[in-house]
């Protein structure tokens, strides 16, 4: 019989020639356990997903209860499904009252696709603005927004009418004009290696959108759902988006995404033609139940309260001459080294020592740190010790 590793290589489509190939058989809280019984501290939450930890008991309970009631019963938007409507209600309670209509989908890319279509249809315009080094997903529309020529070059033609500006540069906001349907922007850039802008930038961006009628679409797929210490990252900047996009951490480990806007804007999907955006599995009842349990857990267990303190503990402990910079917004962190060639063996060594980290798509000299928000102070200190040990083992 072929081993799982052999089957993985032989029959599962590959995305690189160097997959990590860890074989986890269970995961609980901040730990994952592999087939040999080795435990790993998960410092990346399955890339920004397990914000409430792996298999949070509330999430598992909600999933089990929903599985015992029903799985898929109808495509999105036709039947009244309790998990979907209860989730939508809970989400909008966390948001400004202009964001009161939730479209549930299955993933981040899909949510971005929906938001792009929404902006085009609502404004009657087709141009979009995005940022350099932005990542919004791998589907054709989302890829068109991506700010990396490398990733796009072999997949053209992509969507026309998309211009890229520098994230955080107020001057380039002049590119937004009255032919712009929307600007799609991460509130905190993830794959660029954790880049954030100050409130004055966001205020200028909001004003420019109001002036021109372009919609402000915030991609909080990676930075939302508590990752930065606020439920929504835009809460740091005193602005309101016209469309908010979420996924990843929203499902507590189950696949789900959404884009949220006003009833007025979202209403365009119902006519000319009807069914302007549809999905078979969007807002799957089990994923919706898991998502509601995730949101309630963040709220009831006050998981956001300690994020800033935990961020500081990382900063205090990650000090080494080889570390060039540590950038962060809450528990979304990038630890920068001189080059990928320095970083990669450190990541590999940390994995051997039982700590899983990673790098970023558009910043491969920075180590990604985005642990479950439930990580304890002791676990953070232990993780930092292991990272420092890995640096020592590799470079000294
Ligand atoms: N936007 C951002 C900011 C992301 O980080 C990601 C995923 N890395 C996506 C969109 C795409 O989400 P998904 O992989 O669920 O399609």
Explained architecture:
This protein is an alpha/beta fold and 396 residues long. It has 2 domains: 147 residues, Aspartate Aminotransferase, domain 1 (Alpha-Beta Complex); 243 residues, Aspartate Aminotransferase, domain 2. The strands form 3 sheets. Strands 4-10-9-8-7-5-6 form a 7-stranded mixed β-sheet, sandwiched between helices. A 4-stranded mixed β-sheet has the order 1-2-3-13. Bound molecules: 4'-deoxy-4'-aminopyridoxal-5'-phosphate (PMP). 4'-deoxy-4'-aminopyridoxal-5'-phosphate binds next to helix 5.
Q: From the 3D structure, determine the CATH topology of the largest domain.
A: Aspartate Aminotransferase, domain 2
Helix content: 25-40%
What pattern of helices and strands is seen along the backbone? HEEEHHHEHEHHEEHEEEHHHEEHEEEH
- Ligand inventory: 4'-deoxy-4'-aminopyridoxal-5'-phosphate
- State Rg: 21 Å
* Number of structurally distinct domains: 2
CATH architecture of the largest domain: 3-Layer(aba) Sandwich
List the total number of helices.
Answer: 13
CATH superfamily of the largest domain: Type I PLP-dependent aspartate aminotransferase-like (Major domain)
| First-residue to last-residue Cα separation | 43 Å
Structural class determined from secondary elements: alpha/beta
Average pLDDT taken over every residue: 98
Q: Largest sheet, described in full?
A: 7 strands, mixed
In total, the number of strands is 15
Strand order of the largest sheet: 4-10-9-8-7-5-6
Question: Shape from CA axes?
Answer: globular
Query: Any low-confidence stretches, pLDDT <50, length ≥5?
Result: none
CATH class of the largest domain: Alpha Beta
Strand content: 15-25%
């Amino acid at each position: 019989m072929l081993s799982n590793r052999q089957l993985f290589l032989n029959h599962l489509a590959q995305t690189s020639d160097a997959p990590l190939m860890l074989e986890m058989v269970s995961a609980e809280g901040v730990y994952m356990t592999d087939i040999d019984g080795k435990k790993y501290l998960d410092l990346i939450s399955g890339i920004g997903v397990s914000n409430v930890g792996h298999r949070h008991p509330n999430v598992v309970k909600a999933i089990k209860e929903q599985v015992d009631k029903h799985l898929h019963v109808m495509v999105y938007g036709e039947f009244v499904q309790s998990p979907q409507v209860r989730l939508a209600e809970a989400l909008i309670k966390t948001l400004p009252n202009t964001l009161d209509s939730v479209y549930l989908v299955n993933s981040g890319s899909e949510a971005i696709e929906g938001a792009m279509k929404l902006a085009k249809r609502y404004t009657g315009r087709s141009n979009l603005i995005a940022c350099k080094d932005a990542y919004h997903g791998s589907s054709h529309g989302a890829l068109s927004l991506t700010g990396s020529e490398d990733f796009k070059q072999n997949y053209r033609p992509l969507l026309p009418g998309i211009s890229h500006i520098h994230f955080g540069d107020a001057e380039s906001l002049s590119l937004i004009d009255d032919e712009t349907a929307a600007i799609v922007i991460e509130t905190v850039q993830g794959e660029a290696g954790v880049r954030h802008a100050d409130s004055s930038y966001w205020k200028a961006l909001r004003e420019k959108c109001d002036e021109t009628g372009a919609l402000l679409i915030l991609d909080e797929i990676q930075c939302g759902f508590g990752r930065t210490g606020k439920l929504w990252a835009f809460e740091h900047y005193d602005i309101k988006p016209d469309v908010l996009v979420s996924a990843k951490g929203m499902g507590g480990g189950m696949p789900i995404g959404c884009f949220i806007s006003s009833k007025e804007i979202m209403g365009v999907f119902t006519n000319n033609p009807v069914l302007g955006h549809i999905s078979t599995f969007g807002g799957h009842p089990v994923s919706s139940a898991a998502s509601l349990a995730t949101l309630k857990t963040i709220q009831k267990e006050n998981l956001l309260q300690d994020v800033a303190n935990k961020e500081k503990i990382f900063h205090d402990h990650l000090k080494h001459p080889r570390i060039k910079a540590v950038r962060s917004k809450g528990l979304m962190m990038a630890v920068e080294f001189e080059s990928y060639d320095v970083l990669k063996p450190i990541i590999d060594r940390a994995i051997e020592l039982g700590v899983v980290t990673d790098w970023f798509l558009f910043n491969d000299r920075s180590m990604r740190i985005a642990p479950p928000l439930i990580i304890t102070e002791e676990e953070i200190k232990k993780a930092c010790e292991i990272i420092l040990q890995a640096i020592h083992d590799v470079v000294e």
